[in-house]
Specification:
Blueprint: H1 2-14, H2 18-21, E1 32-38, E2 41-47, H3 50-59, E3 70-74, E4 80-84, H4 87-92, E5 97-98, H5 104-107, H6 115-128, H7 145-152, E6 155-156
Parallel strand pairs: 1-3, 5-6
Antiparallel strand pairs: 1-2, 3-4
Length: 158
């Protein structure tokens, strides 16, 4: 049991992004989160430097641009398959969900956001364009200050 507690402590202190470790709202705009799975072991890496992201793309000979939420599954002979990681998994790992590109089913992974609110968020996004800040969510009917504070813990602009 002590080993599990130590493992949990090390993971939450050293390997999760700061937004998962604190109550403060940390600006994660511009950060790209990529899950890399190899030999059954998955890690999530954050990239703020576009050059480092390009190096990863070059390393695995990828044609498509990488975006937050992408998952690289590395097989034998470094054969790479590109997939998307689920938003529920993202939240459990402390990785924020991109409010501007996430689809309806994935928006429901945000705690406190149900079908009706997802519909309102998407309708607002479709009629007004991408959100320029998370505070703009306050303009969506059904999102007050308290719900907005909770959404900010799990979302970012992408």
């Amino acid at each position: 049991m002590a080993l599990l507690c130590l493992l949990y402590f090390l993971i939450t202190c050293n390997y999760l992004p700061p937004s998962a470790n604190s109550e403060s709202n940390i600006d994660t705009a511009g950060t790209i989160y990529i899950e890399i799975s190899e030999d059954g072991i998955s890690t999530v890496r954050s990239f703020t430097n576009p050059k480092a992201l390009e190096n990863l793309k070059y390393q695995y000979r990828l044609r498509d641009n990488l975006k937050s939420g992408d998952r690289l599954i590395i097989g034998k002979n470094e054969n790479v398959k590109l997939a998307r990681k689920s938003c529920r998994k993202s939240i459990s790992l402390g990785v924020p969900i991109g409010i501007n590109t996430t689809e309806a089913d994935d928006l429901k992974a945000i705690p406190g956001v149900g079908d009706e609110l997802v519909s309102r968020i998407i309708n607002y996004r479709d009629s007004h364009g991408k959100f320029k800040s998370l505070d703009e969510l306050d303009n969506v009917e059904g999102i007050g200050k308290k719900k907005l504070a909770n959404i900010k813990k799990s979302a970012n602009l992408d």
